[in-house]
């Protein structure tokens, strides 16, 4: 099974989560500016919320890579309980890409809010999420 991990980050929060997931998936975590080199069965895709939406780079990534993606497992960080996952689900639907049954979100630091998040506990949960998605996909 071919797996890739891509993330979009402005201040490094989502990158931390991406790296934890990539450890479990056994592939590198790479920025969304790097196109997929080949078709992948499963893409872990990480994003954050900025003004209640995902970064424009995520939209560009879908436009450029959608045909190569078999399934998306979405993860993200945000300062509020809201999540980028809903935005990713909508984009995936628009491009005809199925989603994994589980997603992951945690708080990400934003100025003085949620300092030090994601923390070790968040990263532990992110690793567990990755393990669950892989187990479900292989089942
Ligand atoms: C310009 C800007 C706008 C933001 N808007 C939101 C928002 O609408 N909702 C939210 O929950 N968090 C918002 N945040 C907080 C980020 O989603 C949060 O800090 C996230 O962890 C950043 O991830 P990153 O470091 O991977 O870019 C905003 C942050 C910035 C800098």
Description:
This protein is α/β, with parallel strands linked by helices and 139 residues long. The protein has a five-stranded parallel sheet, with helices on both faces. The protein contains four helices and five strands, in the order E-H-E-E-H-E-H-E-H. The model has no long low-confidence stretch (mean pLDDT 97). It is globular. The longest helix has 19 residues, at 120-138. The protein has a single domain, classed as Flavodoxin domain (Rossmann fold, 3-Layer(aba) Sandwich), CATH 3.40.50.360. Helix 1 crosses helix 4 (120-138). The protein is 37% helix and 19% strand. It binds flavin mononucleotide.
Number of helices: 4
**What is the architecture at the second tier of CATH?**
3-Layer(aba) Sandwich
CATH topology: Rossmann fold
Largest sheet: 5 strands, parallel
What is the average of the pLDDT values? Answer: 97
Number of strands: 5
Strand order of the largest sheet: 2-1-3-4-5
Which compounds are bound in this model? Answer: flavin mononucleotide
* Helix/sheet category: alpha/beta
Overall geometry comes to globular
User: Residue share in helices?
Assistant: 25-40%
Spans of at least 5 consecutive residues with low confidence: none
Q: How large is the radius of gyration?
A: 14 Å
> How much of the residues is beta strand, in percent?
15-25%
CATH class descriptor name: Alpha Beta
Give, in order, the helices and strands. EHEEHEHEH
């Amino acid at each position: 099974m071919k797996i890739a991990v891509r993330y979009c980050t402005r201040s490094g929060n989502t990158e931390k989560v991406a790296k934890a997931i990539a450890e479990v998936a056994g592939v590198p975590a790479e920025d969304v500016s790097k196109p997929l080199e080949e078709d992948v069965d499963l893409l872990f895709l990480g994003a954050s919320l900025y003004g209640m939406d995902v970064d424009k780079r995520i939209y560009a990534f879908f436009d450029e890579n959608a045909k190569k993606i078999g399934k998306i497992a979405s993860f993200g960080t945000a300062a509020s309980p809201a999540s980028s996952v809903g935005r990713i689900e909508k984009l995936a639907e628009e491009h005809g890409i199925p989603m994994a049954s589980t997603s992951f979100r945690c708080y990400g630091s934003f100025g003085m809010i949620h300092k030090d998040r994601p923390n070790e506990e968040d990263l532990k949960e992110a690793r567990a999420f990755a393990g669950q998605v892989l187990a479900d996909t292989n089942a």
